[in-house]
Design brief:
Length: 405
């Protein structure tokens, strides 16, 4: 049976859900002779139960593959660790994401960032919510979380993008990796002397069983944060807004009853997550759903497909906020389950409520092209042109005294 190979699907504009639906029904583990530049045969796991099993069985399906390409640019990477090393490292960095820290981020960082961005567009009556809001907001939040001053956000973002595209442009990738480290070194040294409670302070002071993070692990983590935390959240926020704008009756319900915002978020994460697959490599000869997989083969767990498994969600391709809640795989599962998922949910909740509060009578712009959610491995709309009732400009938000902004 022929499926589009990963090399044939357009990475940016691809619409893979139909292909995955066929695979779930006919051949749930897709076997590719090769994918892109990688000459090894690879396997794509498409059903929920198989995906869940593969992500939980870390001894058979190793994460070490995540260091193969990007590790050279990012440094030591939590995403690529396994077993005891991963557990110890994760226990240390997880302290920086505990509930009390999140509460502080909410009031001192997340809400002021979204308010500042909406202040600019609320008086206009028209906006592109991707250009003006979603593409800026999680980046600014992560920069604030790291402690990067506002005036350096764009530079920091550029380095993160160059690191991420290092495999395609190695010279720029290595230079950006070094430059980001050089930029962060004095901040790390300062926080070691005088911790302020920001993320870097948490990372340099965290201790478990007398162990502290090495410098390489600290910089590896900081280099990962923008691609892991901003690119992902910005696209899901766009997908939530797209869902509301294209389901106007539901939008009316949500405007009137904000308890429903949490359902909008979970259903959108299931229906159109931003990261549709995560990578593993078979550590031993094994099989999934009866399909033999040789040791050393890349295994892609297609979480986007698993979240559309009709055995678990009837009419899975429809966005329905009244579905009975059930765990999905948008944040993965098992030992590597997303460390930032509570922050992501917080950002989504704050932004959706703020948009509904500040942009009354929000609707798609009838004079602009209809938006589309697109992409193969990363999905989101590249524009969301909208109209709303213009509001008088709000007073400047009081962020200047914040320790984050
Ligand atoms: C809606 C937004 C997000 C989505 C869809 C998402 C998705 C994921 C997924 C699928 C994984 C598992 C990767 C694997 O198993 O190999 C993961 C891991 C991770 N995510 Fe997220 N993420 C989001 C937001 C964030 C945020 C806001 C942060 C941090 C600020 C973050 C930090 C991380 C980290 C550090 C890991 C690695 C955990 C580990 O290896 O133990 N993510 N994320």
């Amino acid at each position: 049976m022929a499926y589009d190979t990963p090399g044939e699907v357009d990475f940016v504009t691809g619409q893979p859900y139909q292909m995955w639906e066929r695979a779930r029904n006919e051949c749930p583990v897709i076997h590719y002779e090769r994918s892109g530049l990688d000459p090894r045969p690879s396997y794509h796991v498409t059903r929920f139960a198989d995906a869940e099993h593969t992500l939980r069985d870390w001894e058979t399906f190793s994460s070490s593959i995540n260091a193969e390409v990007i590790g050279e640019y990012m440094g030591e990477l939590i995403l690529a660790m396994n077993g005891k090393e991963h557990r110890q490292y994760r226990n240390l960095v997880a302290k920086a994401f505990r509930a009390s820290v999140l509460e502080r981020w909410d009031t001192e960082l997340v809400s002021p960032v979204v308010a500042r961005l909406l202040d600019r567009i609320a008086p206009l009556g028209r906006a592109d919510l991707v250009r003006d809001l979603t593409s800026k907001y999680p980046v600014q939040v992560i920069c604030g979380v790291v402690g990067v001053p506002l005036e350096d956000h764009e530079q920091f973002h550029r380095w993160a993008e160059q690191i991420n595209t290092g495999p395609l442009h190695p010279k720029e990738g290595h230079a950006a990796s070094q430059a980001m480290r050089a930029y962060l070194e004095p901040i790390v040294a300062e926080r070691r002397k005088n911790p302020t409670g920001d993320l870097i302070s948490e990372l340099v002071t965290a201790e478990v069983d007398g162990e502290r993070l090495t410098d390489e692990k600290i910089y590896g983590f900081l280099r990962l944060l923008l691609p892991a935390g901003a690119e992902t959240t910005f696209r899901v926020l766009g997908n939530c807004l797209y869902a509301l704008l294209t389901h106007v009756d539901e939008m009316r319900r949500v405007v009137a009853d904000r308890e429903l915002v949490a359902r909008v978020i979970e259903e959108t994460l299931r229906w159109e997550t931003s990261v549709t697959m995560v990578s593993r490599v078979a550590a031993v000869d094994t099989e999934v759903a009866g399909c033999p997989i040789a040791a050393g083969s890349p295994v892609n767990v297609v979480t986007g497909s698993a979240n559309h498994d009709e055995q678990r969600w009837p009419d899975a391709s429809e966005w329905r906020i009244d579905r009975p809640p059930q765990p999905h795989l948008a944040f993965g599962t098992g030992p590597h389950q997303c460390l930032g998922m509570h922050l992501a949910r917080l950002e989504l909740r704050v932004a959706l409520n703020a948009v509904l509060d500040r942009l009354p009578n929000l609707r798609l712009d009838p004079d602009a092209p209809a938006p589309v959610i697109q992409g193969y491995a990363f999905r989101g709309p590249d524009a969301l042109p909208v109209c709303f009732d213009p509001a008088p400009a709000a007073r400047e938000p009081q962020t200047s005294g914040s320790s984050f902004a």
